[in-house]
Design a protein that fits this description.
Layout (H helix, E strand, L loop, with lengths): L15 E4 L2 E4 L13 E5 L2 H14 L3 E5 L5 H9 L3 E3 L5 E2 L11 E5 L9 E5 H4 L9 E5 L6 H12 L3 E5 L8 H7 L4 E4 L1 H16 L5 E5 L5 H10 L4 E8 L3 E6 L6 E2 L13 E5 L2 E5 L11 E10 L2 E7 H4 E4 L2 E4 H9 L4 E11 L3 E10 L8 H9 L10 E4 L14
Parallel strand pairs: 1-10, 3-4, 3-5, 4-7, 9-10, 9-11, 11-12, 12-13, 23-24
Antiparallel strand pairs: 1-2, 5-6, 7-8, 13-14, 15-19, 16-17, 17-18, 18-19, 20-21, 22-23
Helix pairs in contact: 6-7
Pfam families: AMP-binding (PF00501), AMP-binding_C (PF13193)
Family: Belongs to the ATP-dependent AMP-binding enzyme family.
Protein name: Acyl-CoA synthetase (AMP-forming)/AMP-acid ligase II
């Protein structure tokens, strides 16, 4: 095992951290015993995840942190065979099956697995700490699943910046998080579009009572409808959306209240501090200074883009976004955005369905806002017909009772 060292200055060590209703600081979080290294620490709550992160920051332990529910038996085997000791939520340690030299200071992230089994991406605390400029004092909501890239983004901000408190939201608190946030004075919150839609759908008044000054969206395609809804609820807040991933880090940050980013950002002159964005075919390609280990150069993101005037819109994954209807192609993301532009639609998923003659047709699942009155599939077909070509109009629409949301705060869009 190599020598250990503190990997970064813990400027935020005295920031307030609220976990399980307890008001602590990073410094007064419970301390973990000396971990084996490399270690995969599997947790069931936010407090243990934060304790593992602080241990990593102080000691340089090679660390992967994730919830137990995200790591199945096959993944445990893969981790053990890659040299990780598995530390369970009960503290029990399963030794690594392979002995190897520790990479001191290395932090490993599991990708979301949206395109297959989760992959491990290597980072350091420095590469994960992308906010380095001084920030105004804020109290941040932390709803993300421990170990995800978005989780690391929020926790590193609190750990390395002064006056950046945290209020941790556990999975069982997601339905009532606005009340918790209001109680503890949360002024900044980051979540997926699905996360924000859920909060508006459940109780828009409770959400509006949170004194938010900074609202951030990421993790899924961000459409104009959700930006406009948040602007209506929080007219004075700064609303930002971020394109970030474990592979390329935080690469696009937009603050102008519009979906997509300016076309002028494509192929800008190289800057060592700024990602270079380009499009090859319909795919977003990024060269990023915040990339994961071994991902130097152009990274093909697998995300599909479309142009809308002077904006570049990220519509979805290449392998699922394009629907071919009898030889005519339509973006599922574009159709989804049209559906969610309807004032009575709170959420929508668009996908291809087999059909006679044309091979595929456009289908959708939607969740409607019943407070605005009943909405039928005929209403939505008529709405889409005036905004989309005929082959892009959903011909099968299924109504769901609630917005589906995964542990990563995403839905299958």
């Amino acid at each position: 095992m190599t020598g250990r060292r503190r990997t970064t200055a813990l400027i935020g060590d005295d920031n307030t951290v609220v976990v399980g209703g307890r008001r602590l600081t990073w410094r007064t979080l419970h301390k973990l015993p000396q971990l084996p290294s490399p270690a995969a620490v599997l947790v069931t709550n936010g407090a243990d995840a934060l304790a593992a992160l602080r241990h990593h920051a102080v000691h340089g332990t090679e660390l992967l942190v994730a919830t137990e529910s995200r790591v199945d038996e096959l993944m445990r085997e893969e981790l053990g065979e890659s040299g990780f000791a598995i530390v369970g939520s009960d503290g029990e340690v399963t030794p690594a099956k392979l002995k190897r030299v520790e990479e001191s200071g290395r932090a490993w992230l599991l990708t979301s697995g949206s395109t297959g089994r989760p992959k491990r991406i290597g980072h350091t605390l420095e590469s994960l700490t992308t906010v380095t400029a001084d920030q105004p004092p804020r109290t941040w909501l932390l709803p993300y699943s421990p170990g995800t890239y978005a989780w690391w983004q929020v926790v590193t901000l609190s750990l390395t910046q002064a006056d950046q408190g945290l209020v941790v939201i556990e999975p069982h608190e997601l339905e009532t998080w606005p009340a918790i946030a209001a109680e503890h004075g949360v002024t900044a919150a980051s979540g997926t579009p699905t996360f924000w839609r859920q909060a508006i759908y459940r109780d828009a008044d409770a959400l509006a009572a949170v004194p938010l000054e900074q609202i951030t969206l990421g993790g899924e395609p961000v459409d104009q409808a959700i930006l406009d809804q948040l602007r209506e609820l929080f007219p004075k807040a700064r609303i930002s959306w971020i394109y970030a991933s474990s592979e390329v880090g935080a690469s696009i940050v937009v603050h102008d209240g519009k979906a997509g980013f300016p076309k002028s950002w494509l192929d800008r002159d190289p800057d060592p501090e700024r990602p270079v964005l380009s499009v090859e075919g319909d795919e977003l390609v990024i060269r990023s200074p915040h990339h994961g280990a071994g991902l130097v150069g152009a990274v093909h993101t697998g995300d599909r883009v479309e142009y809308d005037g002077d904006r570049v819109l990220i519509t979805g994954r290449l392998d699922t976004d394009e629907i071919n209807v009898g030889g005519s192609k339509v973006s599922a993301g574009v159709v989804r955005n049209v559906l969610m532009g309807h004032p009575g639609v709170s959420w929508a998923r668009v996908f291809a369905r087999k059909a006679p003659l044309v091979g595929r047709m456009v289908a959708a699942e939607v969740v409607t806002n019943e407070s605005l009155g009943p909405i039928t599939d005929a209403d939505l077909v008529q709405w889409c017909s005036s905004r989309l070509p005929d082959f892009g109009v959903p011909r099968r629409i299924r109504f769901l009772d609630e917005i589906p949301q995964k542990e990563t705060l995403k839905s299958d869009v």
